[in-house]
Amino acid sequence: MGxxxxxxxxxxxxxxxxxxxxxxxxxxxxxxxxxxxxxVEVLMxxxxxxxxxxxxxxxxxxxxxxxxxxxxxxFHFLCYDVSEPLLAGQDFHFIVHAASGxxxxxxxxQPVEVVKANILGVANLMDYGQSxxxxxxxxxxxxxxxxxxxxxxxxxxxxAFVESDSGYVNCxxxxxxxxxxxxxxxxxxxxxxxxxGADVVIARPCHVYGPNFTExxxxxxxxxxxxxxxGEDIVMKSDGSQYRSWCYVVDCVRALLYILLKGESGExxxxxDETSNVSIRELAETIANIGGRKVVIRKPDNQEASxxxxxxxxxxxxxxxxxxxxxxxxxxxEKLSHLASWLNLAQRGGDxx
Length: 353
Fold this sequence. Notes:
13 strands; 39% helix; 12 helices; 7-stranded parallel sheet; 4-stranded mixed sheet; alpha/beta
């Protein structure tokens, strides 16, 4: 496998019906986030005749992230909080709604804002789209909507979640701010389709890893990578027994494009790399080996613990997505290794693009 930039270019040349986007305006919310930012990079790498509107709340971060596109006539940044009504005065033919707080620290410290952003974000964008020639919305949900269930630690190759499943979520907990509001947001998408004829498709990514996370992002893979880049041992805040499906961000974005351009209206699609089902401990050890470090377990404090997911097993079937033509190649170890190299280059001030 080559570099992160090589992966972006390969995704931009994917055999998709790109002609659907010709002459269109595409809005990507959450554009300074992990998934949204990568999607913008892939869309800009494809030499299509369309306009990209990258929406986010942090204009300074956007300038840094999208500096290579500053003079590209196809790129526009829109400073926008999805919790508020959209007042752009511009038609957006395709909307990819990828804005959401997805960090355990945010679930612990701002659960009200998480709920509002997830539910009001869909309503605000749908309302705008209905009066501004929206052709399709892709809502980026989460695999956390499945709650508990699926495979077990003893039989990790057992039952994987399919799109018709609905596991248990205890809604009377602070941590439920994320999966419960994502579930409600999905239902709201379907309701807009039923009542107003909105064309909407839904993506349910598993745990996604990639570059361009912030220093404050405390998702486990980001913590682990920061540890090795600083020459530190990896610090874990659990025993690492939780078993997860993972997906490299470029593979996730490729899946989003398949869903946007080929998915069936009103349908949800899981996104996961079925060859990357590992425990958090295995993930930590893989990243530690890349940096020549070791794994240390340190329990979280009470506030930190309130933001962590207690579900011990969560793997997804991607058979439905694969029927659209999407697939994955390369190993998780290879992708993590060259991701660490990319981050190390960026940290030294090199050209990580």
